[in-house]
Amino acid sequence: MKHLWVQSLCLSLLAGVLGGALVTAQPADITTPPAAVVEKLKLSPFYKKHVDVEGFSIVSSEKVPDAALYEAAWLVNRMVGHRPDILKALAENKARFAIMAHDEFTTTMPEHSDMKPAPYWDKRARGLGATPLRPAVSCGAENLLCYPGDPYQRENICVHEFGHAIHQMGLNTVDPTFDTRLAATYESAMNAGLWKDTYAASNKNEYWAEGVQDWFDTNRENDNQHNHINTRDQLKTYDSGLAALLKEVFGDKPWRYQRIADRLPEDRAHLRGWDVATAPKFEWPKALVEWQEKNRQPLMSSREYAAVRLVPMKAAQAPASLNGSEKTMLHFFNTRRSAVKLWWVDTKGTRKPYGSVAPSGDSMQQTYAGHCWLVTDETGNPVGHCVALQKSGKVIIE
Hints:
This protein is an alpha/beta fold. It is built from twelve helices and 13 strands.
């Protein structure tokens, strides 16, 4: 693949000559997943389509239109085409980009098929970021290609979820200092009162991914999860620390995301004549909507979950996590009248922040059997700790 790396380098140099505008080649042709890729990534036979971006794989079932794979490849190139080191790390860490058809859902994807309860995840998310635990970053074709009915039409979920993959599967490999610096920047922003009551305040991972969306001008604003910041220029003024990290990773090139209908013809050429008028309308299946309406509270007593006891604590120190290899989940339900904070306790006994849970809210955390989780109040006083079981568990916070 050396010639592809040289091509990328030459294009990056040309971009500098042209005043920072990123120039990318037409994406490679779509094929069936090559045998070597299937073996390396342990790809399920579910995936029938594949396109390569400098060794990084984009995959889908046969139900996804080719244009969605070309669009994903184009976006990957626009975001990190000038960073072959990140693309190489993503490939070496076996990350892949999996696209859902408009009538496929989170648990349809093989890498996420064990997430339970399935209806919860199928209704909650039209995209997830890649992590070492689950190396597939996902997104719906309806968001990539701007289908009618796209529930996220005011933002690009691909940019957000790929931002997670860049962080956890790319930057953490090419720059071992990055995660520590991101954590410090996040804590500084929280201490300064930035991002109050927004999704970006959840934890350092969402802080980063929301920032990636802002950097490329494709975030929502002024709703129940966002404040008024949704562009690069606004971010530079509002949170200069996060903006500096984003500039370090992505550069400060002119490119910003635009919906397909708003682009210049040359920025639609990779779609190879695809017409949005031929697209189906995205609609949530009636069964999922009804399940969501009926089952949030019954979830707390669902038999799909094992009851995991929250052990009361008087000291701030929780036991260290055991080295576990079996994937599982914990679903926290906060029945208190005030928010609580979640912390994962690593194998050395150091606690790592994993966001907060609002009063009467809930939070699902992917983890491993034997891992310890700490719950504190908003000021850091311990409420209790629990240890994940092999079966997915529910934790009631009282």
